[in-house]
Prior knowledge:
Oligomer: single chain
Structural class: alpha+beta
Number of strands: 17
Largest sheet: 9 strands, mixed
Amino acid sequence: xxxxxxxxxxxxxxxxxxxxxxxxxxxxxxxxxxxxxxxxxxxxxxxxxxxxxxxxxxxxxxxxxxxxxxxxxxxxxxxxxxxxxxxxxxxxxxxxxxxxxxxxxxxxxxxxxxxxxxxxxxxxxxxxxxxxxxxxxxxxxxxxxxxxxxxxxxxxxxxxxxxxxxxxxxxxxxxxxxxxxxxxxxxxxxxxxxxxxxxxxxxxxxxxxxxxxxxxxxxxxxxxxxxxxxxxxxxxxxxxxxxxxxxxxx
Length: 250
């Protein structure tokens, strides 16, 4: 009977608002997690009602109320809740939230825009799992200019890190000598994908801003500010993740 209550340790940590499943696995592998006083291993299972779990020496307490935030991340902040190099991190921007939350996915230090934070492990997994393809929209300023051939390559898919990207939707928003603003919609969330695509085409990314994720838009939310997602927005995002999982790769 006890076995039926056991869950994978990384799932338990995600459900308690410690980190996403993948980040929790990294923490376990790094020796930052203990179960009943012993260092945890990848693959361990726990009974949340009986086993004592610690992260960085502090006990893990279950978070009952689910929290879903949309943050307008400014440039210069790293997408983490604490940083060993003492850089500014997004945790500072949500310090007044009553409850522990963590970032959903990544937005690199030099990028800005829409970033979700939550304490719901299932929601975070749905938004970030490689099998899910929730479309994300970016406003990208590149230099010096862009050709029709370069736009076609982005649209058709490119080889990045030995794997071809999914086709992207790309359109020119504005252009002037030495500078072009693009709107790019990606069906996947590979690490620094837009920057790597532009680098491969000889383009310099001067600014990169995420303006939408699925049906949810950044809107007029100011840099450094956050708001709570509505129940309807959460429902639509989960539906978009489910639809993305069912959609075939092209």
